[in-house]
Amino acid sequence: MLSDRPVRRFPGATPNQGHPRGKVFHYNGFALPMSKSDMQRHGGARTLHRCAGPEANSGKISRSCAFDDVSTAFFPASRNHPRPKARPPLTVEFLQSAIGAEMSEVDRVLRASLASDVVLIRRVAEYIIGAGGKRLRPALLLLAARACGYHGRDHYTLAAVIEMIHTATLLHDDVVDESSLRRGHATANAEFGNAASVLVGDFLYSRAFQMMVGVNRMRVLSILADATNVIAEGEVLQLLYAGDAQTDEARYFDVIHRKTAKLFEAAARLGSVLGDADADCEDALAQFGMHLGTAFQLMDDVLDYSGASADIGKNLGDDLAEGKMTLPLIRALATGTSDDVALLRHAIGDGGLEDFAPVLEVLARTGALGYARDRAVAEGRAAAACLSGLPPSEAGRTLLQLSTFAADRTY
């Protein structure tokens, strides 16, 4: 969610008071409005505006920079801010081209870390990790470290640690949710059984902590210990709220901040710590990760009702079948008719997919999916604003594009 607290600026980023509409901060030729009134004027979210001409990369904002000339380069589409079709969104393939060599090294570290003389551990771990995935969390750590000027090798180890923690949570989640499909493949619990999945998830957690100790930085241990604890709390809260039609938006955002966004936050923070960034820089990147992870989860929840199963790699309607109270359902319950609410409560309570088509009709009629998508866009823009003081770099520009990808994807 957007915060009323002003975004922290990196050292050297200065506000421009001469802009025709007030205070802005410059990043790589983009002017970012920071005031709450600006945010309200532009759809409730901070927006980026491209400066044209020689001043675009000068670190200065000119009055000739048209404030209403909104760049589409890093804007996800929403109802309030449609995006022209001419500019394609960032893709996983683009991310691979930007940091593919580094990601290959992370994969090497990841696979080497799975070494065990227990055959079942290797089989299950290789199965889930070999299934692929977007690898956004380790990519976020690599990019944050590079943006902060880090030149060592510990970022490979910690990126692998982040992915191992994420994989462990997936193994446990799929058992709790009784899921059968993930990333387009049978889940590990469907393939090997619940007991093996839980125990291998435990192995991944413990191996991740062995690896992070090897980095020999107490700050790293503190960040990851805190993150894993918060993630576990989020999983338990989600379990408690399952099937509870009284769950409101505040509870929902509390869950996804803990369950999903916290690991994104930790990844971005770790990158800044490796780069020995100052406290303001560290906090700004951590906030970027939190907003990015929130946008990512919001879109996951939208796609569970509107995506294509082949694209998202899991069965449509899984959230409904599991009684998960996600934002589309919460919004429809808050704005629907009494008949709509009765239908939704029945679907949530029964946890069956026979009501999936009628539920989709309610979500469409109430605009609940569009509402959740707009909230994802707002989180993406809030993430972009956190980069306002980042020194110009390719890594910084890729981070900026990630804030769009999280809220503008179909898989």
Radius of gyration: 21 Å
Number of strands: 5
The coarse silhouette is globular
Percentage of residues in helical conformation: 55-70%
CATH topology group: Farnesyl Diphosphate Synthase
Category by helix and strand content: mainly alpha
Average pLDDT reading = 78
CATH superfamily: Farnesyl Diphosphate Synthase
**Percentage of residues in strands:** under 5%
- Using the coordinates above, name the CATH class: Mainly Alpha
Q: Give the terminus-to-terminus CA distance.
A: 22 Å
Task: Please tell me the total number of domains.
Answer: 1
In short:
This protein is mainly α and 411 residues long. It contains 17 helices and five strands.
Features:
disordered N terminus; about 400 residues; 3-stranded antiparallel beta sheet; 17 helices; globular; single chain; mainly alpha; two-stranded antiparallel sheet; about 60% helix; Farnesyl Diphosphate Synthase
